[in-house]
């Protein structure tokens, strides 16, 4: 259960996630403790900020920053009700921010394992990835998780087939979130859990709406490759020219971590050199 709290009138609002120990199974308590431990170690502009934890005989509490914009799923529902769409620029801004956050946790050898629109929060228009309760810390890049866990609409084929999987399962989930933002619906739907599973495992994903750039559609198709080995990593996607071209258009508040900032700078430098070269050739 989540509560909005304001412990000090001079300090911004916080969210207190409360789990009553006498009502929960040990696994759920362990998940909450894991979430607190993970969040306390993470520091990134696109990761929900952990502030503190409280434990007593009755409950376990996690205190995090408050995101006044709610979650992405709620935002999409509002668009559906208003019969509006999310602009291409906004979609790209948020898509890149999700990639930045996931690239960071993957660099820490952490799988999220339950990436979905409901776990993507909005604070002043900035993406904050949360709900790390079922995340897994990997022993190393070659370690594979095999626990069947997550939300059906965002599950990758290898997860549904109970095969080993690594960070590429998160990439599939981000691809599904991208489709959510573009089409305001899930890429794979069905009347039952098994019909959804069958589509995810056997059917090719639907295309993005025509109004989206072809380059974004290509990235989406790569992210939803059935074979996880064929999917790019978050870092691979952030280095793609189409994504790099969008960095200068992002709002100033969208902070970028050091490694990706270097990628952005290299692209800007190369772009400037190409423009200068074209100008020279024009006058010679």
UniProtKB/TrEMBL annotation:
Keyword Kinase: yes
Residues covered by the Protein kinase domain: 1-243
Keyword Nucleotide-binding: yes
Reaction(s) this enzyme catalyzes, per UniProt: L-threonyl-[protein] + ATP = O-phospho-L-threonyl-[protein] + ADP + H(+); L-seryl-[protein] + ATP = O-phospho-L-seryl-[protein] + ADP + H(+)
E.C. code: 2.7.11.1
Any single Pfam family the record assigns to this protein: Pkinase
GO MF annotation list: ATP binding; protein serine/threonine kinase activity
Protein name, UniProt field: non-specific serine/threonine protein kinase
Species for this entry: Octopus bimaculoides (California two-spotted octopus)
